[in-house]
Write a structure and sequence with these properties.
With 366 residues, the protein is of the alpha+beta class. Helices cover 50% and strands 16% of the residues. The radius of gyration is 39 Å and the shape is elongated. The structure holds iron/sulfur cluster.
Length: 366
């Protein structure tokens, strides 16, 4: 019995030992698993950190690239606007040069008119050669921007203003813009309404197109706006009435607008839009053709009739009073019929460019 008991006790104790061993082994396995998990977790965490770091650095790089690209295109736009201003101030477009030379050839030899045209031509040549303003009055700066969707107009204006300031400092422009109430000249050509910038968004455009026009004060002073009917001139609300008031404006201008000049006309609109559109007519090429047959006829008639008035270059008499006439039409209210006339002098400074994606000059329009 005693032996049996002893054996039983021994058996029980060895089983217990075995169980204990198993438990220890299990614990070890569990511990190992936990350790493995920890290592795996650490690895994942490490990977995440590395990925994040890579992401952050590539985002930073991308951001830096963007900033550099932006700065480069800002600088390019500044240079572009500066160059556009220089060329506009110093050179007249080829289509204008052509009609000036034709007018010079038309004038009778050894007349004051021929002398005036020779001075004008010499002035044009010298200004281009020396890259200096064609006239001491560098005028109101009109800028027309036609652009695709997405152009930052505020930034464009800021950069353009900086370029205008620079152009004034280096002498491409005269210090020409004054406070209307005090007459004070800040010497920068910048202020309310100056430069006169116009933006037009055109979703069909792939690139930005900029036209610049410098319009002197003398010729601006002889611009005129008529409200038809005009009983004094016997001008009714028709094209004959329009013709009468245009010729009246030419007659009144005489040589004061530094003729021979070019007329930009708007029939219709209101007093504000009419004058604006009449200036936009001056962006047209002198040798283009008005698509409206009646207006095409009227443009030709106005130039021919004006040149028979004997006013001539600078009002000295002669055969050339006008170099061109461009007429556009806007809708009007039934109650009003305006004819707005903008007069451009012989120093017809208008240039246009198309920009590349980098805001550099891709090509010159005129
Ligand atoms: S009207 Fe023209 S040409 Fe005459 S001073 Fe003014 S800008 Fe010069």
């Amino acid at each position: 019995m005693a032996v049996r008991k002893k054996k039983k006790v021994a058996k029980t104790s060895s089983t217990k030992k075995k169980v204990a061993k198993k438990k220890v082994a299990k614990k070890k396995v569990a511990k190992k698993k936990v350790a493995k998990k920890k290592v795996a977790k650490k690895k994942v965490a490490k990977k995440k950190v590395t990925k994040k770091a890579v992401k952050t650095s590539s985002a930073k790089k991308k951001k830096a690239k963007k900033v550099i690209k932006k700065a480069n295109s800002d600088k390019a736009l500044f240079d572009t606007m500066l160059e556009l201003t220089r060329v506009t101030s110093a050179e007249i477009p080829d289509d204008v040069q052509k009609v000036v030379l034709e007018a010079l050839a038309r004038e009778e030899k050894n007349t004051t008119a021929e002398y005036a045209m020779n001075i004008i031509q010499a002035n044009i040549v010298l200004a281009k050669k020396k890259s200096q303003p064609i006239c001491q009055d560098t005028g109101t700066i009109h800028i027309f921007v036609e652009h695709p969707v997405g152009l930052d107009q505020t930034k464009f204006r800021k950069i353009t203003e900086k370029a205008i300031v620079k152009a004034t400092q280096v002498g491409y422009l005269r210090q020409n813009s004054v406070d209307s109430l005090t007459g004070k000249n800040e010497g920068m050509n910048i202020g309310p309404g100056h430069p006169d910038l116009h933006f037009k968004e055109n979703p069909k455009r792939k690139s930005v197109k900029i036209s610049m026009m410098l319009k002197g004060g003398g010729c601006e002073n002889v611009g005129a706006q008529y409200s038809l009917p005009n009983t004094e001139l016997g001008a009714g609300r028709d094209l004959d009435g329009v013709r009468k008031v245009i010729l009246d404006a030419v007659q009144k201008a005489q040589g004061k607008g530094c003729g021979p000049g070019v007329l930009g006309i708007c029939i219709g609109g209101d007093r504000g839009s009419g004058y604006k559109y009449s200036k936009e007519q001056l962006l047209r090429m002198l040798d283009d053709t008005n698509p409206h047959p009646d207006l095409k006829k009227l443009e030709k008639d106005i130039v021919e009739t004006s040149n028979k008035l004997g006013i001539g270059p600078m009002g000295f008499g002669g055969k050339t009073t006008l170099l061109g006439c461009k007429i556009g039409v806007l809708n009007r209210l039934p109650a009003s019929f305006f004819v707005s006339i903008s007069y451009m002098c012989w120093a017809y400074r208008r240039k246009g460019i198309e920009l590349s994606n980098k805001m550099e000059i891709k090509n010159w329009i005129y």
